[in-house]
Specification:
about 300 residues, alpha/beta, 14 strands
Amino acid sequence: MAHSHTPWIGVDWGTTHRRAYALDAAGQCSTEASDDQGALTTRGRHAESLAAWLPSLTSNADSPVVMSGMVGSAFGWVEAPYLGPEVALEAIPQHLVAVPGQARRHIVPGYCVRDATGQPDVMRGEETQLLGAVAMGLRDGWFVLPGTHSKWVLLRDGRIEQLRTYMTGELFALLSTHGTLAAAAQPAGTEPLWSQAAFADGVAAGAPGALAHQLFACRARVVTGTMPASQAQAYLSGLLIGSELQDVLRDLDPHTATTDGRPQFHLIGSPALAEAYQVAARQLGSALTVLSPREVILSGFHYIQTHGA
């Protein structure tokens, strides 16, 4: 446990960006900082990069530092082995990986969860946010963490029962900037126009399965004049998010929490992503409760602060 006079640093260190929080003994954040020095950018010089960054957070070079995310991957500072679903989220503080030669520097391990067929799925970084949600009393139910790789996680009494990853954000970025869909969506001299109607049409078209076929329909709608090219990105966004949501809804078990008969999920994500997912969820007859990413990760780091590091 950290002493009251010693600042404690939690770092969410992703592939391309990182954000750090200086916490006091009560878990209150006194200072935070972010930059573009992700785990891949700082590869081979993580120690030097962290040392140069710490003065912006604390004057105490001996402050404990716990890092989550891709800093624990194969290209990170130290590879932290994946935990299995038998390890409860609240046991994470007992499984931190010490950085060799670096006093009071630890990395949070990720999780690997296999489905009924043995297919593995993995995550790094999201487990700290989920731990924060559990520490806030949210021990059960489905959680969605949208982003480049959207994670859907089913918790049962603070343990991960299911994990499903969808490359929704990455596919949107690739398809809207490269290839035939990008050419159709943004011909020379045009600007993308967000259309709620086009987004809704995409959500409706995103039935589970045959996504490759559904994606081409985006181009077909433009070249036949069915949809203006300026609305193609909104349609593509709806199609990808709708496909993700409908795939999860198709496989829900009967014990999923409901609100007014609608499947209920918790979403941890940015306001822009939260709004898009909420709109799609309502259209498909489900409901999302939005949790602040900052609030849950601070809760997760504080739990580690008081139970281990």
